[in-house]
Amino acid sequence: MTDPTELTDGADLTALDLLCAVPFHDADAPARAAILRQLADTELHAALVADAAGDVADLRMFDLPGATVALAADDAAVLAGFLGGPVAHVSLPGRVLAAALAAEGRGLLVNPGRRSEMLLDAAALAWLGQALAVAPDAAEAAPRRLTQPRPDAVAALADPLARRLSDMAGRIAGGALVGADWPDGRQGHLLAIEGASADDRPALAKALAELLAFLPEIPGGVDVTFQPLALPAGALRIEPAPPAPAPAPVRRDPHAPPRLKW
Questions:
Q1: Architecture of domain 145-238 in CATH?
Q2: pLDDT in tens, 213-239
Q3: What architecture does CATH give domain 15-132?
Q4: Which residues fall within 8 angstroms of residue 35, CB to CB, at 6 or more apart?
Q5: β-bridge partners, 223
Q6: Per-residue pLDDT tens for 82-133?
Q7: Beta carbons of 72 and 82 less than 8 angstroms apart
Q8: What does residue 50 show for φ and ψ, rounded to 5 degrees?
């Protein structure tokens, strides 16, 4: 395969590329988990044998030593460039493509020639599916005592939680991570989410459960609550980053010729 540290001249870095400063297969376990989580949320363009007919798409498969894989990229131009010209493709979320391939015992080659190149066998895709299938506990047990979060939990969770909560800007007011002692004797952590509507809570809880499934295991676990809490001293406050301002409208020259569309 192509050296994954090489980039096509002038190519823009995608979200997957930015996570792969170290090539995927050389990265440590937490970094690989973060890359796979991004892959699940990324729209991938997968090569087809021919244009889709209705709702049926026949993935183009490639035989590699020890595996049969589909080919996909997070930029359709990258896919066409790798195959030497325009190619029929289908665009769908990474999680959907991974689940379909894992069910057939097939693998996936992603972004060949990019710094985010990765070759995922059926076992890796099945692991991804299992992590994405995690469901949050609907129980809202009250902790016996709230404490300052442990330093190891802050080190592991602060940055990923900040990024995920920023994705939720406009749907939540913020969040806080605290230590929690539970009535059953368990000592873990609790993520308190503020300002979420009742309708949004199930989807937000699922998104946070998925995030936690890809992070290093925190002793005692991390629970999520949408109930207001009296935060203890030392609680880790996490505020969503404000959304980027909308770009200023481009004023078109009224004397310019019309734009043509095909």
A1: 2-Layer Sandwich (3.30)
A2: 888 889 999 999 999 999 999 999 998
A3: 3-Layer(aba) Sandwich (3.40)
A4: 16, 19, 20, 24, 27, 116, 118
A5: 190
A6: 999 999 999 999 999 999 999 999 999 999 999 999 999 999 999 999 988 8
A7: no
A8: -155, 170
